[in-house]
Specification:
TIM Barrel; 8-stranded parallel barrel; 9 helices; 37% helix; 10 strands; alpha/beta; 317 residues; globular
Length: 317
């Protein structure tokens, strides 16, 4: 099982020196990958609407100060040597298909083949209205089509595509990504369309457990979600276990209310022994990667918690 951490690219910890130090220290501690999130602009974040917290509010105190995801990942790639870089997730409709495919191919080449392309359709309409040229209501269809276009651009010497939202012919996209046939695609999202997308094109399904509309915050709920994934993968004409599972943990320990709405214990709540048990249980279920958000008020505190967690939890799994 690979273990990763979220590298903040928003709020106070997005200061360049802090981002660099956290990334380099995480690499030195032996974490397998780091993640970075994707927003271009945000509305007033004091207005509830965030789908991954109990209150509907953003976790960070000041998330509106934010670096663009792919440029931030390229910067961090240059400051590290081994750790993998996971877009968590790239909101696919944010960028035109050909431009995004080119940026991702370049990032994979410049990082020495360390990129993982986490993908999502997005959820924030205010941001879409400001950034995206395709309709918000079409974001799922746009995401599916753009991903198909990415794979054509990344793998074919004379790429051609004739879709509803993007078309190209008579072009060359070189160099291709360093990873062949292309960087791994981790499909974010918890609802049915995301599961079907993962089943069709994903190397991994990449949910967050705390989505209030599609909770995967207990062992039974996550097991049921994985069962749905296996069924959808078979229906897509692939082997049922062709898609692995990566899992994002937004909060852990005392920060997590211990009892879920179905009466079960919530994953990654409780003591260190409880959390170690959750890592082991998810590993035994076939989860291949878990990443943690260590959110702390400053870089020294976050690095100290990463080091403590590494020793107290990860090294005991």
């Amino acid at each position: 099982m690979q273990i990763g951490f979220n590298l903040p690219n928003s709020g106070p910890l997005a200061a360049v020196a802090d981002m660099t130090e956290i990334a380099q220290q995480g690499e030195a501690m032996g974490f397998d990958y780091l993640t970075m999130t994707d927003h271009v602009v945000l509305p007033d974040t004091k207005v509830p609407g965030y789908p991954y917290s109990e209150s509907g509010e953003f976790y960070e105190d000041a998330p509106t100060a934010r670096h663009e995801q792919l440029i931030g990942m390229a910067y961090i790639a240059a400051k590290t040597t081994r750790i993998r870089l996971v877009a968590a997730v790239l909101v696919i409709p944010h960028r035109p298909a050909v431009l995004a495919a080119k940026m991702l191919a370049t990032l994979d080449v410049l990082s020495g083949g360390r990129l993982v392309v986490g993908i999502g359709a997005g959820w924030l309409k205010t941001e879409f209205d400001a950034v995206v040229t395709t309709p918000f209501a079409d974001r799922g269809a746009v995401t599916d089509e753009y991903i198909d276009a990415f794979r054509v651009l990344w793998t074919e010497s004379a790429p051609r595509f004739d879709g509803r939202y993007t078309k190209f012919d008579g072009i060359v996209l070189e160099p291709k990504p360093a990873q062949r046939p292309h960087p791994p695609i981790w499909v974010g999202g918890e609802a049915g369309p995301a599961l079907r997308r993962a089943a069709r094109v994903g190397d991994a399904w990449y949910p967050i457990g705390s989505n209030n509309k599609h909770l995967l915050d207990t062992l039974p709920r996550l097991q049921a979600g994985i069962a749905r994934l296996r069924k959808a993968t078979a229906e897509a004409g692939r082997e049922p276990d062709a898609v692995s599972v990566a899992y994002r943990v937004k909060r852990y320990g005392a920060a997590v209310p211990p009892t879920a709405s179905n009466g079960e214990r919530r994953l990654f709540s409780g003591s260190e022994a409880d959390i170690i048990g959750d890592f082991r249980a998810l590993r035994d279920m076939g989860v291949s990667a878990i990443d943690i958000d260590f959110g702390r008020p400053d870089a020294p505190a976050m690095i100290a918690e990463m080091r403590r967690f590494r020793t107290a939890v990860i090294d005991r799994i």
